[in-house]
Write a structure and sequence with these properties.
One of its GO terms (molecular function) is L-ascorbic acid binding. Keywords: Iron, Metal-binding, Vitamin C. It comes from Linum tenue. InterPro entries: IPNS-like_FE2OG_OXY, IPNS-like_sf, Oxoglu/Fe-dep_dioxygenase_dom, Plant_2OG-oxidoreductases. By secondary structure, the chain is an alpha+beta fold. It has one domain: Jelly Rolls (Sandwich), CATH 2.60.120. It contains four helices and ten strands, in the order H-H-E-E-E-E-E-E-H-E-E-E-E-H. Strand 4 and strand 5 form a beta hairpin. The chain is globular and about 65 Å long. The termini are far apart. The protein binds N-oxalylglycine (OGA) and nickel (II) ion. Nickel (II) ion binds next to loops.
């Protein structure tokens, strides 16, 4: 029995999800801008305004006979600006907090939001990208749907000038295109 989506249905659902995700992104970026004491549109416009990108990745973690010997994903921070994540109800995501790995609860209907590297850079470290990893499960397949919100590749990202001054708060991060940042992170080069 075929119970999945047809390509046409998949397209419709994805387009609608994208619209809602972009609305939520706008709201979160406004609140994060205000949290920095800046105009609500600051972060969005620094990330390319209407050219901001949303990239969906579907993670699939099959059951693992010896879950204590493996990880789903190694510890990392996301290199985008924000990640909006929906897991399938199987626990496994952990965040690094105060020196411990802390399990993230599966709340039905919740969208998990990660602050990524580009928000850390723009805020000059006032917000920090969340270090996270995933475990695998002995019996159950875990899946998660992640949307990475990121600037266009050629967008130049650095600490916001409003947050930087030479004496009190010098820039903690270098300024470069998102493409350059990605290249360095993927190839483990210094930023
Ligand atoms: C990622 C990620 C976590 C998860 O895709 O960057 O961290 O819960 N996924 O699958
Ligand atoms: Ni991640």
């Amino acid at each position: 029995k075929f119970y999945g989506f047809t390509p046409q249905q998949c397209r419709e659902v994805t387009e609608e999800y994208n619209k809602e995700i972009l609305k939520l992104t706008d709201k979160i970026l406004e609140l994060l801008s205000e949290g920095l004491g800046l105009e609500p549109n600051t972060l969005k416009s620094s990330l390319g305004g209407e050219d901001i990108e949303a990239e969906m990745k579907i993670n699939h973690y099959p059951p693992c006979p010896q879950p204590e010997l493996a990880l789903g994903v190694e510890p990392h921070t996301d290199m985008c600006a924000l990640t909006l994540l929906v897991p399938n109800g199987v626990a496994g995501l952990q965040v690094w907090k105060d020196g411990n790995w802390v399990a993230v609860d599966c709340l039905p209907g919740a969208i998990l939001v990660h602050v990524g590297d580009q928000i850390e850079v723009l805020s000059n470290g006032k917000y920090t990208g969340v270090l996270h990893r995933t475990l695998v499960n002995k019996e159950r397949t875990r899946m998660s749907w992640a949307v990475f919100i990121a600037p266009p590749h050629d967008k130049v990202i650095g600490p916001l000038t409003q947050l930087v001054d030479d004496d009190q708060s010098p820039p903690k991060y270098s300024t470069k295109t998102f493409a350059d940042y990605r290249y360095r992170k993927i190839n483990k080069l210094p930023q």
